[in-house]
Every structure is written in C-alpha cells, then in structure tokens.
Amino acid sequence: MKIVKEAYVDHTQFDKKDIHFDANSKADNPKWSMVDVQYQRMVKRYIPLSELKKYHLQHRAKGGPLKDMGLFTRARLSVQPLTTEEFEFILTLEDKEPL
Question: Which residues of the chain carry a pLDDT beneath 70?
Fold first, then answer.
C-alpha cells in the first residue's frame, strides 16, 4: 500500500457511537491519528514479522538495508515509514524461500 495522505487526527475517537471511541482522548489533545492509504498490489508470499526481524538482526551485525528499520528501532506503530532501500529489499524477499 501507499500512504496518500499523511497523519491527521482520527475523528472516530470522539464519536461515542463509534467502536474506536476513546473517552480519554480530548479534542485539544487527541491521542489517535490516522493516514489514508491506497492499495498497490499483494506481495507474492506472506513475509512474517519474524523473518523481517531475522534480516534486521543480520543487517545490524553485517550491514544491510534493514539495519536501521524503524519497525525494530522505534516504538512500534501501526504504520511505519520505510526508506526506498528498505522497501526494495523487502520486495526482493517475495521471490526467496523464507529465512
């Protein structure tokens, strides 16, 4: 998928009828954000988090595109940015046997 609109306040957190309502979130200090995404294509195979983590550890030790991947170096969010190099490397994994 591709991010087509950067993070903005998730309005559903304020709607008492919405499943995502959060009574602790205030309009002047919202807790939740959302992004708009656009479908691009499916990868050819499922690439589990555990496999990406193995590559990340290998790349940290020996160098490689996933050495500083935010998914493993920052607090985990539901949406993580990727560098072009990280994205292109991950796409190469779809044609490889799982690690």
Answer: 77
